[in-house]
Design goal:
Blueprint: H1 2-25, H2 30-43, E1 47-50, E2 54-58, H3 65-68, H4 86-98, H5 100-115, E3 124-128, H6 140-147, E4 159-163, H7 171-180, E5 184-192, H8 196-202, H9 209-221, E6 225-232, H10 239-256, E7 260-265, H11 273-281, H12 285-289, H13 303-314, E8 323-325, H14 327-340, H15 344-363, H16 366-376, H17 380-389, H18 398-413, H19 418-430
Parallel strand pairs: 2-3, 3-4, 4-5, 5-6, 6-7, 7-8
Antiparallel strand pairs: 1-2
Length: about 450
């Protein structure tokens, strides 16, 4: 697919580096590998986020199988939850292939190095590799060593949250988590958008709606909780188009009976398609004229768009307690916006919206959002934002927008052969079929 070629090209330098590190790691014996890995892990902190009620701990595994892709790095086009340390990644991969049990012991050391042995749990614990139900990332011996042999925590946390791909969800492993790890188990999986053509041909997720439906069914049967992650803003599209996809996604997941939905604002990260659009195409008159997210400001959706999206979602009282704000991405988004705005008035508006969303996330009182909506409704900046939005391409031109952005990307990645790449995308677009919400 076109998007696979794009992401593989963006990640090509690291794919080459990984291959070299892999060959080097294969020359080590097991003791040498473990020593080298341990030294690296001691230097790192896998405790990526914490507050009064949540701890998030990342495990340095052999990497996301979808991203590593047998050494030809590819994966989801909007994702950069991935170590840039190719040496550690390669060594973990070699250990896993040679000795899955030793790989599991190394993963346990990774956790205990960050949190301590028999860690005292917070109310919510988020322990994650990339696809925590994957038998490729967590072979059975490693899975048993990490999660079954000895408890990670001194007592079972109230809720333990894992991330997995919907296609990896299985009753067998879910029941192990439930019996061995926590009083309540929640599985978070990436949906991003309900439109599976966009999800797979543009976001390169390789996850289909029937797999999501089946995953939710299995999670319910195991008496666990499901959490679907979706994007506020889609790379390469306008905010108008993104809003339509977002609201359709919310409605689909609500009808599906998902327990929780994580909202994550699109952020501009290195080696993602959004980061590429901002770094390489933000000065393109074509991108600018089309009002593509990433073609202006700091490469992320405007603060007004994010607020309006959350306001629309939370106006449905049935959804207020289902929604989760992605802590890491929202934190980065707010920090980026605070740096972006320079004038006193801009800073004031940004701070007001940021504080309101933060307060709402805690109190879940819709009146907080209503007060901000009333305040900004007569603000000149907001009125100008609404005026400019009317010039954006809407749902009816979604495929035209993708074709145009794809062509601009192709011109920069393959300056001498871009026409054939752009034609490949157009052939994929011809196969587009928009599903109805009930599908």
């Amino acid at each position: 697919m076109f998007i696979e070629d794009v992401i593989s090209r963006i990640w090509e330098p690291l794919s080459i580096k990984y291959e070299k590190q892999l060959e080097k790691a294969k020359t080590f014996d097991d003791d040498q590998l473990v020593t080298a890995i341990t030294e690296k892990l001691i230097e790192q902190d896998s405790h990526v986020f914490k507050n009064d009620w949540l701890n998030m701990t990342s495990l340095n595994t052999s990497g996301c199988p979808h991203k590593v892709n047998d050494g030809r790095f590819c994966g989801c086009s909007m994702c950069n939850y991935f170590s840039g340390d190719m040496e550690l990644l390669a060594m973990m991969s070699v250990v896993k292939q040679r000795n899955p049990l030793l790989y599991g012991k190394t993963l346990r050391f990774c956790f205990e190095n960050s949190r301590g042995k028999s860690a005292i749990p917070n109310v919510f614990e988020y322990v994650n590799g990339h696809d925590s139900l994957s038998t490729e990332e967590f072979p059975q011996e490693a899975f048993h060593e990490l999660f079954c042999k000895e408890n990670l925590f001194s007592t079972k946390p109230y809720r333990l949250i894992f991330e997995a791909r919907a296609s990896s969800v299985s009753k067998e492993r879910l029941m192990v988590y439930k019996e061995k790890c926590a009083r309540n188990v929640e599985i978070a999986f990436g949906v991003e958008v309900y439109d599976e053509w966009i999800r797979n041909h543009w976001l390169n997720k390789n996850i289909y709606n029937h797999e999501i439906v089946e995953a939710v069914k299995i999670i319910k049967e195991c008496k666990c909780q499901s959490r679907a992650n979706i994007l506020i803003g889609v790379p390469g599209l306008t905010e108008e188009q993104s809003m339509k996809l977002l609201m359709d996604s919310i409605n689909w997941l609500k009808d599906l009976g998902v327990d929780y939905i994580t909202l994550s604002p699109l952020v501009s990260k290195e080696r993602t398609i959004q980061g590429y659009i901002f770094d390489r195409l933000k000065d393109s008159p074509i991108i600018s004229k089309a009002h593509i997210i990433g073609g202006f400001e700091d490469g992320t959706p405007s603060i007004f768009f994010v607020f309006d999206a959350i306001y629309r979602i939370m106006s449905d009282s049935e959804l207020i307690d289902k929604m989760v704000f992605a802590p890491v991405n929202f934190m980065q988004y707010f920090v980026d916006k605070a740096r972006l705005y320079q004038s006193t008035e801009q800073k004031k508006l940004c701070r007001m919206i940021t504080n309101a969303l933060t307060e709402f996330d805690i109190k879940r009182d819709f009146k907080i959002l209503e007060e901000v909506k009333e305040t900004i409704s007569n603000d000149t900046s907001y009125l100008n934002y609404l005026r400019d939005k009317k010039q954006e391409n809407g749902e009816d031109k979604l495929l035209c927008t993708l074709g145009m952005v794809g062509e601009e990307i192709a011109k920069t990645l393959w300056p001498y052969t871009w026409e054939s790449k752009a034609c490949n995308l157009q052939e994929e677009i011809k196969c587009y079929s928009r599903p109805s919400i009930g599908e």
